[in-house]
Specification:
By secondary structure, the protein is an all-alpha fold. 75% of the residues lie in helices and 0% in strands. 57% of the residues are buried.
């Protein structure tokens, strides 16, 4: 505790240390989330399960990963962010570790689908939104961009390593590594994480007398009622539906489709597993750049127009993917660069719009529900692409459909913020200046 107090009194604002701990936690969660991409084919070979059957477990995982978001935000308000993070990491370590003993498909659904889904869902991107709004007044968009980019960094670090372990030592070795990472994070979070700037005697970064600190959220009440009440309010807002609809498409075109199925799709076109994992990890390099830049741009430009560009470019990239897989390696490299720059660049402007519309007092829970829509789209694509591959013997239809949906999303995001009689939820004047 004395070490934390010394850090808090240092020249570096403690909010940056909180952001660093959050970055590493989200990085680890992203590495855990990326593991199924290298496990699909080994599980098929060992247990004889179909691609569609394995995709059911991955869909459940993705769905719970999203649905837990708003409830996790409410629990953070009620019990504190550190306690929620510690329980989540424990769940992840237990669920992942126990998969080494499974023998039937329902155990995969229970462990990787439900237990790991609940754990990772509680330390998902809603955690980044929560920390950025609680600890920062200035540089909020940049911090959100960096925390979002942690998922790319986790993918970059973990995927090649996991693929090499699967090839050299079997899929259980990769699973044990993932469980160990979750356990290692526990003491780091317990030692350094704090719930509020006031816990270490500070204001949020950038808060002054002239620019007061972010009002603290109310932490009393039933967390489930808090989350459900926010959802009822969201249902009355057209902007909520536009944000949720576009983010559904975002999930369907990223971790649900590419994050889950690009490696097996590449292997079916003659690309070795480790090379395919390295391609996906390389996307993480470009996504780290693209998402961080997106956070910087979000502090300066209209978030709606940024989202139009992001969804348009992603849609064109996905329409190009079937051609890239069927041709020389250069075409696939072009896809990796352009898609990677865009992968989750949508998150910072989406969080910004959520805060602008609903107020920063509500951004954690409201973004949690919008993020749940993202993961519902991811779950739909994870199962749908697996089913399409099982029925048609190819991923081409899944890739093309997702690309067209991204073009539909451009029409949704450009309408966000336009006045309408149905848009009943607006921040009160005290909250109207919120931004991420």
């Amino acid at each position: 505790m004395l070490a934390v107090e010394r850090l808090a009194r240092g020249r570096l604002h403690y909010g940056w240390i909180i952001a660093a701990v959050t970055f590493v936690t989200l990085l680890s969660a992203a590495g855990i989330r990326s593991a199924p991409g290298v496990l699909i084919i080994p599980l098929e070979k060992e247990f004889g399960w179909s691609r569609a059957m394995i995709s059911v477990a991955l869909s459940v995982n993705l769905l719970l990963y999203g649905v837990m978001g708003p409830f996790a935000a409410a629990f953070m308000d009620r019990f504190g962010v550190r306690r929620v993070m510690l329980i989540s990491l424990g769940l992840v370590a237990a669920g992942v570790g126990l998969t080494t003993t499974m023998h039937t498909s329902w155990q995969l659904v229970l462990l990787w689908g439900i237990v790991v889904g609940l754990g990772t869902g509680s330390i998902a991107l809603v955690l980044g939104a929560y920390i950025a709004n609680r600890w920062f007044v200035e540089r909020r968009g940049l911090v959100m961009g960096l925390l979002t980019a942690s998922t790319a960094t986790g993918q970059l670090i973990f995927l090649p390593t996991l693929a090499s372990l699967v090839v050299g030592h079997g899929w259980r070795a990769a699973v044990i590594l993932v469980a160990g990472v979750a356990l290692i994070m526990v003491p780091l979070v317990a030692l350094l994480m704090r719930n509020e700037p006031s816990d270490v005697g500070l204001r949020p970064y950038g808060a002054t007398v002239e620019a007061p600190q972010v009002p603290q959220l109310q932490t009393g009440g039933n967390p489930f009622e808090t989350a459900l009440s926010a959802l009822r309010r969201g249902f009355k807002s057209r902007d909520f539906w536009l944000l949720a609809g576009s983010f559904f498409i975002c999930g369907a075109s990223t971790n649900g489709l590419i994050g889950t199925h690009l490696i097996p799709a590449s292997m079916e076109h003659g690309i070795p597993e480790v090379t395919a994992a390295s391609l996906l990890a390389t996307m993480g390099v470009f996504d780290l750049v693209g998402t961080t830049l997106s956070g910087w741009l979000t502090d300066r430009w209209d978030s709606r127009y940024l989202l139009v560009w992001y969804y348009s470019l992603r849609g064109l990239s996905l329409l190009f993917l079937p051609y890239a897989l069927g041709t020389q390696f250069l075409a696939l490299a072009v896809f990796v660069v352009f898609y990677g720059l865009d992968w989750i660049a949508t998150v910072p402007p989406t969080v910004r719009l959520t805060a602008d519309i609903f107020g920063k007092r509500n951004v954690g829970v409201m973004y949690g529900w919008i993020s749940a829509s993202h993961q519902l789209g991811a779950a739909t694509a994870a199962f749908g692409a697996g089913a399409v591959r099982t029925w048609l013997g190819s991923y081409q239809v899944a890739f093309m459909t997702s690309g067209l949906l991204c073009l539909v999303a451009t029409g949704l995001v450009i309408r966000i913020g336009q006045a309408s009689k149905g848009d009943l939820v607006r921040p009160r004047p005290a909250e109207a200046g919120a931004s991420v």
